[in-house]
Design a protein that fits this description.
The protein is of the alpha/beta class. The chain has five helices and four strands. The protein has a single domain, classed as Rhodanese-like domain (Oxidized Rhodanese, domain 1, 3-Layer(aba) Sandwich). The chain is globular, with a radius of gyration of 13 Å. It starts with a helix and ends in a 5-residue tail after the last helix.
Length: 97
């Protein structure tokens, strides 16, 4: 899956896998916060979200772990790495008037 195209087309659900305190410190608008440590306990909630799940964290380590865990559970997902990557892609997609 092409991350840029997913962001441009507003496909799927953006999931922040950082801790709630990290999320409160700054996050992607409309991102759902489910810490990587809670993913397997919240599978039913995740199944209700529009897929693919676009996973991000602070630097990419936890999103890679989340991507592996969720693919094992048969989720359609993509590892976006750092939240700054998504923020950058969103900024490129801003329409100017």
């Amino acid at each position: 899956m092409n991350l840029k195209k997913l962001i441009e087309n507003k496909e799927g659900t953006i999931v922040d896998v950082r801790t709630p305190s990290e999320y409160m410190g700054g996050h992607i608008p409309d991102a759902v916060n489910i810490p990587v440590s809670d993913l397997l306990q919240r599978v039913d909630e995740l199944r209700e979200l529009k897929q693919p799940l676009i996973l991000y964290c602070a630097s990419g380590g936890r999103s890679a772990m989340a991507n592996y865990m969720l693919k094992e559970q048969k989720f359609e997902c993509v590892d976006a790495g750092s939240w700054l990557t998504i923020n950058y892609l969103l900024s490129q997609n801003v329409e100017t008037v």
